[in-house]
Amino acid sequence: MTDNAEIDRQIDREYEAGFITDVESSTLPPGLNEDTVRFISKKKGEPEWLLEWRLKAFAAWKEMTPPNWAQVKHPEVDFQDISYFSEPKSMEDRPQSLDEVDPELIATYVKLGIPVHEHAALAGVAVDVVFDSVSLGTTFREKLSESGVIFMPISEAVHKHPELVKKYMGSVVPQRDNFYSALNSAVFSDGSFVYIPKGVRCPMELSTYFRINEENTGQFERTLIIADEGSHVSYLEGCTAPMRDENQLHAAVVELVAMDDAEIKYSTVQNWYPGDSEGKGGIYNFVTKRGIAHTNAKISWTQVETGSAITWKYPSCILKGDNSVGEFYSVALTNNFQEADTGTKMIHLGKNTKSTIISKGISAGKSQNAYRGLVRMGPGAKGARNYTQCDSLLIGDKCGAHTFPYIESKNPSAIVEHEATTSKVSDEQLFLCQQRGIDTEKAVSMIVNGFCKEVFKELPMEFAVEAGKLLEVSLEGSVG
Amino acid sequence: MLTIKDLQASVEDKEILKGLNLDIKPGEIHAIMGPNGAGKSTLGNVLAGREDYEVSGGSAELQGTDLLELDPEERARLGVFLAFQYPVEIPGVSNLEFLKASVDSVRAAQGKEPLDSVSFLKLAREKCKAVDLDQSFLKRGVNEGFSGGEKKRNEIMQMMLLEPKLCILDETDSGLDIDALQVVAKGVNSLRDPNRSFIVVTHYQRLLDYIVPDYVHVLANGKIVKTGGKELALELEEKGYSWLEDGADNGAQ
Amino acid sequence: MTDFHKGLLAVNPADSDLLAALNKSGRDSFLQQEIPTRKTEAWKYTSLNALTSHEEGYGRLATNFNANELATLSNIPALDAHRLVFVNGQYSSQLSSSELSSSESSANVVRFSQANSEQQKIIADNIGSAIEQDKHLFAALNNAITNDGVLVHIGKNEQLKQNIQITHISTAQKKAFTVPARILIVLETGANATVVEHFTSTGDQQNCFINAITEAKVGANARLNHYRLQLVEENSIQIGGVYVDLDRDANYDSFQLGLGAKIVRNDINVNHNVGGSHCELKGVYLPQNKQLIDFHSNMEHKVANCTTNEVFRGIMADKSKAVFNGRIHIHPDAQKTLAELSNKNLLLSNEATINTKPELEIYADDVRCAHGATIAQLDEEARFYLQSRGISAAEADVMLSFGFINELLENLELEAVRDLIRPILAKRFGRDEELMQHIG
Asked: Fewer CB near the terminus (10 Å): N or C of chain B?
């Protein structure tokens, strides 16, 4: 407790991604009904089957109620008060490549450090940039197409690869899976589509960068990644939003399909605007992410969650095929009034399936941080194994750290191990650092970084550094 | 007593024993020495029947019975005893109950009646005393919270209770101070018998001052590369193993 | 009123001025609570169907029994205890030693219905106070329907040497019936007592629903040793729990054993209310056949400097199912808390199920809390060790399974309790005589 005074004395630094891009946008007025769904579908020039698909989801959504079991408190979201579509006017002309996109938009990403130019420093990463409801375009298309990799906005894939989209969209996260997935299925605007052909190792990292810009606008993107037999892909997403006083909704759906012997590595650095130090504003991040792993396949989720006012997110693996592997590495940091309820589900169906869960929760300020996870060993999960480790670090005595692991087993040969601990940045640790000449802020950041090391090492290298810095920034003002 | 021919075994697809031959006559003590990773412990585990060890070729017979086809408990009942290098702790299972279960099953295999509880307790206490273990150890969980030396003495005590035909001591000297070493050696020597044979696996010559072997074998790269009398141990102590390892390679060529 | 509520409230409490207020508030609370479904978090894995779908319902039943035939069953051999025995909820003076009650004595063990005015005051002052009935449906039910109970009151600094044994026996009956069982334990400052609760039944077809609630108020520096042994036959239903309030530097040391039945559900709720208190909770569950057992524990660390050490182990055989939920809740002011929970499970069959959920809810930073839960198999190393000593694989498994539970029995203070339950447990693992000769 004594270190709080020291910890609290630290400076507040601004949310660096909090600027607003001044572009003219055409934005649908707030409100949600069947016409909204039809409007979005029409705007995207979608085929009839997709409109039907959306309407079915919308009908289901109307019958559903928001989940209330998470350890988060927020005012009820008024779904009629949100605009479900917004795109920069300049995008209405459908530019053919990123080179044709409004320089003001491109500048947004450059300012955020996103490599939208192919000649930029991170030349090894192909990027899709999504601005409010539309994708501005993807980089490195030609290079990727040489190896048969498809990486494009999902709105484009609907037209160019309808058979793939039709077959797989909703196959992992059904429309009516939950309240927010149903909502997303009805009004999703854009997102990324990835297909890696059989036996191909994707030659570069793929990444999507999501940006919410418009006021009162929700973002409902949808990502679908299909790794065909024996293929391999590493994918990264990043997210930011301007600082606004009102809460904005982000309800995404991500579906991963890893066919036999395929591997998908999915990393997230989530830095949506978390609200100010008084708890005003910030993104409500209600996301459904799930992957299905077939025989010998592997799905690995790595997430660094520092943003959003509320996070509700459980990237999951259905380990359907024998010997399939699921991994979940997570760092969730909450500060000020942020609340996070996040974790994973590992559903073991196949024989000898393996899963590993490493979750690091850091709570500071007046925030609440919960790990919620499910490990289920089905009757057929012979010889399956899970190892879970959940560690919480508390900084200050006004925050909360919670662990809610659900463990279910119906197979006597399956082994599950779950451990959870909680600790704080101790006076002794701080004193040791100080005695060696390291100031408190730096010391806390070092300790937190050490605490998160196991997860950071799972991130692609470029992003591991970024994630470390992000934590440092997010922690500012927590110490003292 | 024990005849091993061209024994090959692997762990997790890694070949460890690569054609080992050994012939042990009743009453003999054979020391097996060798560098770390040579396969010394593997030999004991293979003979005792540990599941993780895959035998890919060769044979091992105890008085004409093929050991390799048998379950671990069947081997034990025939008289194979492995004194473990790292005896496992089994909390909740009392040492006494464990010992009684073990002695009962070995006796049953010999067509003998189980000992009644009173006689057994008396016997167990006697053996405890012989290896300098306090009787309170009988009440504790198997090896639970025992020190390294106590675990080793517990192993020797079991050996004395079961009176096996073939005793395999897997680095029983490791981690023992000189006093404990003498206790262990005394226990082993008390069991020396014209109808009982020993394999003493060790890294150091020291133990062999107390348990004097008839033969010393050097195990390197999964084979016995040199055999000699007890003086070989002294030579190894002085010169190390590398000259023999090189020799093994040359020999293979 | 729904059928669910009506059915369970069918047992009218007797007219008792002493319990009238409790009965009324219990009834009000019970009626306003929702019927648990699969979506009710606390009942996610445990269905109440067997209780609520019973055609005739579980009412009250006056039964005749032959006390002589029950003497062996009610006795815990070698336990030096002051004994109160109830058969189908009715007190049996023949099976009990007389009640311990006098105005001079500072230790009283007395039925509510026999309480003198001083004792009545103690009951009135304390009953229901350790229970948040609005959060515990079946505690509210007990408050609503209980018509008698046992008061254990130990005065200041009294170190009661003799143990207290409270046994409930249920016998075979054609008609389904409910037994509300209630114990109120009040230990004054510095007092010390050992209470053994013991539930058992005749081996025949059972038709009993036992709604057993034990409430303990452990005073400053006082110590309660509490054994709760559920050894009922598998057609019984037992739903209830233990609710404990700990005063400054109080100690609650408990061992809970549940064999499983049609439904067995226990809520164990411990409140660290003042500071310096310690809770040591050990538990074992061993359902077999198609039995169900559910333990929900909740450690409320409301203040600083308290400790909890909780260990539960379970072995599920056949088509049985076990549920374990272990919550540790550290309130904002509960700095310097040390709380640990360990839950280990073994599944013995392809059709058995375990659902476990250790929970940490922490609102203070200077605490050391940890939990661990495992579902595993018997240790291969240990099995090989036993086999290498001539013990068959089958017997090794029995010995190791028993050892897994025995670890928690070894340290029980009351040898008589250990001697009572070891053979019962041994029988659960070694169904074959051959295999169980070296355990129990």
From this structure: C
Q: How confident is the model at residue A426 (pLDDT cuts 50, 70, 90)?
A: confident
B15-20: Cβ within 8 A, 24+ apart: B15/B56, B15/B222, B16/B42, B16/B53, B16/B222, B17/B42, B17/B43, B17/B46, B17/B222, B17/B223, B18/B221, B18/B222, B18/B223, B19/B57, B19/B58, B19/B222, B19/B223, B20/B58, B20/B219, B20/B222, B20/B223, B20/B224
pLDDT of residue B206 exceeding 90 = no
Domain range for A207 is: 25-425
Residues C173-198 pLDDT 10s: 888 899 999 999 999 999 999 999 99
Q: What is the ipTM of this complex?
A: 0.88
Residue B220 in tokens: 């390197």
Residue A1 tokens, joined: 């407790």
Which residue in A has a C-alpha nearest to residue C338's C-alpha? A422
Strand C353-362 versus strand C107-111 pairing type: unpaired
Q: Residues B236, B225: contact at Cβ < 8 Å?
A: no
Contact state of C353 with A408 under an 8 Å Cβ cutoff:
yes
Which chain A residues touch C368 with a CB distance below 8 Å?
Answer: 422-423
Residue A459 within a domain: no
- Is residue A457 one of the residues assigned to a domain? no
- Total structural domains in chain B? 1
Identify the band that residue A4 occupies on the pLDDT scale cut at 50, 70 and 90: very low
Provide the sign of the torsion angle of the four alpha carbons C411, C415, C420, C423, taken in this order. positive
Q: Is the pLDDT of residue C102 over 60?
A: yes
Number of domains making up chain A:
1
The pLDDT assigned to C119 comes to 94
How many Cα atoms within 13 Å fall on the side-chain side of residue C312?
Answer: 31
Q: Is A201 in contact with A269 (CB distance < 8 Å)? A: no
Residues of A in contact with C318 (CB under 8 A): none
Domain that holds residue B213: 2-88+164-248
Q: What is the DSSP letter of C135?
A: G
Chain C residue closest in CA terms to A387: C374
Q: Do chains C and B touch (3 or more CB pairs under 8 A)?
A: yes
The CATH number assigned to the domain holding B244 equals 3.40.50.300
Q: Is the pTM of this model over 0.80?
A: yes
Provide the shortest C-alpha distance from residue A412 to chain C (in Å): 5
Is C406 an 8 Å CB contact of chain B?
A: yes
Does residue A471 lie within any of the structural domains? Answer: no
Strands (E), C221-291: 223-231, 237-246, 251-258, 263-272, 278-285
Higher pLDDT pick, C343 / A87: C343
Would you place residue C299 in the very low, low, confident or very high pLDDT band (cuts 50, 70, 90)? very high
Q: Does a structural domain hold residue A255?
A: yes
Give which of A222, A229, A165 is closest to A197, Cα–Cα.
A229
Q: What is the pLDDT of residues A183-201, one digit of tens each?
A: 999 999 888 899 999 999 9
CA dist., res. C4 & res. B234, Å (int): 85
User: Cα separations (Å) of A199 from A173, A249, A297, A353?
Assistant: 25, 38, 12, 22
Contact check, Cβ <8 Å, A415/C377: yes
Interatomic CA distance for residues A50 and A162, integer angstroms: 10
* Residue pLDDT, tens place only, C29-57: 999 999 898 889 999 999 998 888 877 77
How far CA B3 is from CA of B26, B67, B68, C55, in Å, comes to 11, 10, 12, 73
What amino acid is encoded at A241 in this protein?
Answer: A
Please give the Cα distance from A338 to C158 (Å, whole number).
51
C301-355 tens-digit pLDDT = 999 999 999 999 999 999 999 999 999 999 999 999 999 999 999 998 989 999 9
- Say if residue C154's pLDDT is above 90: yes
Select the residue of C390, C400, C410 nearest B106 (Cβ to Cβ). C390
In 3D space, the residue among C349, C426, C394 whose CA is nearest the CA of residue B94 turns out to be: C426
**How much is the average pLDDT of A258-270?**
94
